[in-house]
Amino acid sequence: MIGPRADSARLGFPDEVSRRKWLGTLGGTAMGLLLSDLAERVAFGAQPQATVRLGSLTKSSFQPLLGKLVAVYGKGTTVNMLLLKVDGNPFGKKAIPSVPKLPVSREPFSITLLSPAGSNLPEGLYTLQHPALGTTEPLFLAPVGQTKPGQAKQYQAVFS
User: Fold this and answer.
1) Looking at residue 136, what DSSP letter applies?
2) CA-derived radius of gyration, the chain
3) Cα angle at 80 between 84 and 53, to 5 degrees?
4) Which of 35, 43, 57, 71 is the most buried (most CB within 10 A)?
5) pLDDT in tens, 20-71
6) For residue 117, which phi and psi values (nearest 5 degrees)?
7) Which helix H or strand E contains 6, and what residues bound it?
8) Domain ranges (residues) in the chain
């Protein structure tokens, strides 16, 4: 035999698979993927539904929360962090000449959060929640500065 049938026979596959059997296998695989996703969400706890769009946040959105705890959700965990700083333009006063000016709807700013001692979150997407703020869409948090193992760590989010 020559052609695709010869290859399938040589590899031990049946010559013909009924459409019903193929669709059943495909449906079973899809259902398995959906159930594993659902099981993961249940096991790690569902993140709260976002109520605040990132584009609507400004420096003044976070200033009343200085010194208060903010819940940080993501990567299968929840950590309460202290809002340590709200800084103005994190890029400085100089504009980068090679970048064309874009219409800006807000002044860029950054927030710095302090995690409890011993918590170690990798950089990535996290959701913030506080009763006075609401629940944000996922935003990128990155650890900043060096700390000793087991000590509190600072994380920064930049809004541009």
Assistant:
1) B
2) 25
3) 80
4) 57
5) 664 455 455 444 444 444 344 433 445 667 789 998 999 999 999 999 999 9
6) -60, 140
7) helix 4-10
8) 4-44, 54-92+105-159
What tens digit of pLDDT does each residue of 75-128 get? Answer: 889 999 999 999 987 666 555 455 555 555 678 899 999 999 888 889 999 999
Query: The tokens of 86 are what?
Result: 């709200």
Q: Tell me, what's the pLDDT at 93?
A: 56
Q: What is the pTM of this model?
A: 0.64
106 token code pair: 């807000």
Enumerate long-range contacts of 81-84, CB under 8 Å, 24 or more apart: 81/113, 81/114, 81/115, 81/116, 81/155, 82/113, 82/114, 83/111, 83/112, 83/113, 84/112, 84/113, 84/114, 84/154
Burial class (CB in 10 A: 0-12, 13-18, 19+), 84: middle
Residue that has been written with the tokens 């060096």 in this structure: 146
Residue 35 sits at φ, ψ, to 5 deg, of: -65, -35
* Better-scored residue on pLDDT, 12 or 136: 136
Q: Is a pLDDT exceeding 90 seen at residue 140?
A: yes
Q: What's 55's DSSP letter? A: G
